[in-house]
Amino acid sequence: MTGLCMNYDDLIRHFGNWFETTDFNPIIERLLLACPSSTVFAIGGHSVVVQISPSIVAKVAVHPGDSRLQNEQKIFQLLEQTDCRYIAKCLFRGTDVLFLECLPHGSLHDRISSISKVPRPVLQWMLQLSSAVACIENLGYAHGDINPQNVLVDDNDQLKLIDFDHALPIGDPVDVGYEPYVRQYRAGAKDKGGAFGVAGPTTEQYALGSLFWYMSRGTELYSELEGPDRVERLMDDIFPVVNLEDPIDKIIDNCWHGRYNRVADLLKEIEGIAGSTTKEQKLVDGDEEVEKRRICEEYYNSVTRP
């Protein structure tokens, strides 16, 4: 749920009786009171996103000490070693809070679902997402929950990967996700691990392949089927027939069948096709970013000091 523009009273009504019985994080209310014109921008399964300015949001754990937000903070700390333009930028980290760049144009799902005459730059999007996932892979991690809701659109119609709550080391079992961006394995399957396999190039490229299908077709893989039928098709490795003479379709098929040893290999193939057709992203003004970080730290200190 994004772009909600809710105040604190609206938020309480949203949670209803659950609010009275849970250890609700006081930082959420403090941020809404401390920041002029701030609103609840989004509500997740275990976090609330507060928009504190047109360019900054704060993602706050609903429960203090939530391990999933702590995991996301760890990933963003690792990402400081990299320079990936297609991952949402973290501006400041504090206890129970992540300050992030605001991407107000909605998710990839919103972009594809909307009635728009603007063409979908599918190849560019494929390059951007593969670049983001390869960056995480290079750190020894998998995103673990790649789907259209966890990809946002920026001002230039370019994509940025978000939500690292469920990111996990390569080789760990994958236990979250939904079809067709994950698939279950039958008993005895060589790739079994968690409910959806073992985190790594196979699971990540599979999710990307299903996203690429969604981008190119405008509908999700097997969206015409009921849930159980979709699950059965995917468990049996039954996929739609694609045109292997088409570079995008060939990549989708390769991803579904795990033919890339690494996501980096997938990225290299897309780069070879995209060539110079991809648009460069606008460079970020260094002074502007420093100022944003200062503002975030100032707000954090104001809502956490005794």
Written overview of the protein:
It contains eleven helices and ten strands. It is of the alpha+beta class. It folds into two domains: 2-104 and 284-304, Phosphorylase Kinase, domain 1, CATH 3.30.200; 119-277, Transferase(Phosphotransferase), domain 1. The chain starts with a strand and ends with a helix. Residues 35-284 form the Protein kinase domain. It comes from Metarhizium robertsii (strain ARSEF 23 / ATCC MYA-3075). InterPro entries: Kinase-like_dom_sf, Plant_MAPKKK, Prot_kinase_dom. This is Protein kinase, catalytic domain protein.
Structural key phrases:
single chain; alpha+beta; Phosphorylase Kinase, domain 1; 2 domains; six-stranded antiparallel β-sheet; two-stranded antiparallel ribbon; 10 strands; about 40% helix; globular; Prot_kinase_dom; kinase; Protein kinase, catalytic domain protein; protein kinase activity; ATP binding
Can you describe this structure in just a few lines?
It holds the Pfam family Pkinase. The chain is an alpha+beta fold.
Tally of helical segments: 11
Q: In total, how many beta strands?
A: 10
**Distance between the terminal alpha carbons, to the nearest Å?**
32 Å
Described by strand count, sense and barrel closure, the largest sheet is: 6 strands, antiparallel
Please bin the fraction of helical residues.
40-55%
Over all CA atoms, what is the radius of gyration? Answer: 20 Å
Number of domains: 2
